[in-house]
Amino acid sequence: MSALRSSAAHLARRLGLFDTTMIVMGGIIGSGIFINPYVVAQQLPSWAFGGLIALVGAFIYAELSSQTSASGGQYVYLRDAFHPGLAFVYGWALLLVTQSGGMAAVAVTFAKYVCALGRMEANDNVAALLATIVLIVLTMINCLGVRAGSTTQNLFMILKLIAIAALVAFGLTVTGASIPGITTPTAVTSGGSTSSTPGIWNSLTAFGAALIPVQFAYGGWQTSCFVAGEVREPQKNLPRGLLLGVLGVIAVYLSVNFVCVRALGPQGLGETRTPASAVMRLALGENGARIIAVGIAISTVGFLSQSMLTAPRVYFAMAEDGLFFARLAKLNRARVPAFAIALQGALAVVITLSGRYEQILNYVISVDVIFFALTATTVFVFRHRAKTNPSLLKASPARTPGHPFTTLFFIVACCGVAFSTLYRYPHNSLIGLGIMLTGLPAYLFWKLQQQKTPNTERPTPNIE
Within 10 Å of residue 6's Cβ, how many Cβ atoms? Predict the structure, then answer.
């Protein structure tokens, strides 16, 4: 795999290893780590297992990213291993479901925390207005250039790491505390087992249910591959950044969960939906709760900044292939796809103002993990091609350790999470899959348009 897309060379390669590592961590760590531990209070090993899945996934994506310098990440891998139609459906689902819906939900989360800190009434209209403002500001920053977007993302990533370090440090000063006045002991079981009868099936489904929010919390590391066209020495820096970032997040997540369990106890953790605030309140009183609220607000902005930096590069790649609006492939004076960035920001704002972000967010996991599994299978395709034509393989690419067993483990794990999501939330999962499949007629439409007006300036490339 080698060929670089024609206009990808015009993107500014201004991101180094540190930027890539921060992008990986920023794409994973949102607000979930401050909130999700209560969901897995009775299934704590799922955090470690989720980290293992993410680490294996990082090795797989490191191998794939070491083979090409083109922006687009999963879109590029799926296109060149299977078919442009499958890649288009991925990009379509990213725009309509997984990225825009997630950004809208996180933006509203930021707005609600800001309202709480400012002692304002967090009604839907105020939250939507604040969320819209932050989305517009981040859109404008990223249109100024990849360096501006990356610096903003790095700053918020460092600030959120400081907030997490404070949570862990102060949390270690609290031990075995109880949380009075909490009356939601069914919080874990509400999304958990459908039966109290012990058995292998119930245990597996309970563990699978715990993995759903964990998979959501660990997701996002793959987005660093979207900006490959703007990374210096991408075949070296992207694989390293992926592995360093995922390992860093695993350490962060396990530390936070350890502190939450130690401070609140398994029962106390299972009975609160705001474990980080509970820990800091026990350690520092109400001031502690306010400090962690600031940390969560910072973390949400950092996630939004990372999303605005990375996802538009997929739509840029689709447009370069003649499968989306041609304007999305245009670069501005700062050598970034400003129209693609504006599209991402605009759709996130529309979803925010519609108030449908929570509903759309429920559709994310089932779609996301399917494409994780499909992308992992591209390793088999590319390695098979390299066997028949060794010149296609780089001299020293990153290699997935333990392949094919580790790759198969990742695929099976993703399929397991997809099944658990479908089993427990069939309505939401089917809607998510339905939205994803609307990409097929959309692809046929753009393919027809491409045939009518062939893109002779930017022929569809292949990873060789």
Answer: 12
What is the rounded distance in angstroms from the CA atom of residue 6 to the CA atom of residue 441?
28
Placement of tokens 């790095």 in the chain: 154
The C-alpha atoms of residue 329 and residue 320 are separated, in whole angstroms, by 5
Interior/surface letters 232-268, b for 16+ CB within 10 angstroms, e for the rest: eebbebbbbbbbbbbbbbbebbebbbbbbbbbbbeeb
Contacts of 299 (CB under 8 A, 6+ apart): 29, 30, 31, 33, 34, 156, 160, 163
Residue 19 confidence (pLDDT)? 93
Q: Please list the alpha-helical segments (H only) found in 184-233.
A: 200-218
CB atoms under 10 Å from CB of 45, counted, come to 10
User: How does 83-93 read in b/e, with b if 16+ C-beta sit within 10 Å?
Assistant: ebbbbbbbbbb
d(CA 240, CA 251): 17
**The pTM is what?**
0.85
Q: What percent of the chain has pLDDT over 70?
A: 84
Above 50 in pLDDT, residue 8?
no
What is the C-alpha to C-alpha distance for residues 272 and 261, in angstroms, rounded to an integer? 12
Q: What is the average pLDDT across 358-382?
A: 86
C-beta of residue 47 within 8 angstroms of C-beta of residue 55: no
Tokens of residue 296, six digits: 């969560």
Q: Helices 364-388 and 200-218: crossing angle, nearest 10°?
A: 80
CA-CA distances (angstroms) from residue 406 to 55, 58, 230, 257, 420? 10, 11, 29, 26, 21
DSSP string of 72-98, one letter each residue? TTHHHHHHHHT-HHHHHHHHHHIIIII
Q: Number of helices and strands (H, E) in the chain?
A: 19, 0
- 54-63, 175-184, 303-312, 409-418: which range is least confident on average? 175-184
Q: Residue 277 — very low, low, confident or very high, per pLDDT cuts 50/70/90?
A: confident
Please name the residue ranges forming H helices in 144-198: 146-171
